[in-house]
Amino acid sequence: MDTPQISAPSRAPSSGVVHINTPHTSRFTVVGNHLTRHGELSLTAIGLAAHIQSLPDGFRIGIRFLADRFPESEARIAAALRELETHGYLKRTRERLPSGRVVTRTVSYNQPITDEIPAAAPGPRPRSVRPAPEHPAPTPAPARLPLYA
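RE: above sequence
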């Protein structure tokens, strides 16, 4: 008979969060850590961005609609949307329809856009190349130790 392999249970940390993760198989949204751990966005903006990313295309996300859905005020939601625009996660443009009605078009980005990186086709980021020094410094010879002291 084989000897059963007994492995010690993993030790939980003595403090801090412990994650119990169950894989999702349907109805989930992938959100990057660059958003969830963003150092300059408010928690309201981070949560709102995650919510917006979970919505299907064409879903209405006006300030009043969001204020009716969540406990935050219209002012708080408007401020969070401005934060997301400032940091490149959201772009809102106002357009006039043929009927004369003005609507706001909202585009949500799961990777923040910047002026340097166009939103339509973010390509690979260029690798920084260090220029070779013109005159490399001479390598000093290693010091020799006496064989007998």
